What we know:
mainly alpha, Homeodomain-like_sf, DNA-binding
Amino acid sequence: MSTQAPAPSRREQILKEAARLFAERGFHGVGVDEIGAAVGISGPGLYRHFPGKEAMLAELLVGISGRLLTGGKRRAAEGEGAGHAPAEVLDSLIEGHIDFALDDRPLIILHDRELDRLRDTDRKLVRSLQRQYVELWVEVVRKVYPRLAEAEARACVHAVFGLLNSTPHLGRPGALPGRAATAALLHRLALGAFDGAHGADGSGQVR
């Protein structure tokens, strides 16, 4: 039986190329015709899939926020259902976010640069999904590091996200270790940040 992933749909192809082009040249620096050319269709042909560039940007940013939350909930539920320790659940959450940080760098750039271009309703939805994702992590982090106050845990989670989401700025393509080595390094750094916060008062670490 084949284990190959299904080929991306035309809509997914359009979104992937739109994300790449928007990240490289800015939202206003890219025309519909250029996005169409990147996927082999005419610019006007894109309107069969999206009403315009604004709709593409909204689907990209709302979509990735939703996927991160859904993936985080799945990892937490699977870990707890299998009887894994909270530290193992946190490891799984970190692994999932590292996959995003390494594989979807254009979306990180888009979020930083273009979030304010979304309509109010879409921007509020992105923020709501992100808050839920943060709180999911906070709950797990406080089980692993029980001496961390809630506010401290939340600050740590935001700091770790900042660390992991720095991947677009880590260097030129090819200047970094391989993907597996980079993922392992990021994982150690994330755990080190949590460990450091928990042990900052000299009380020791639980990991």
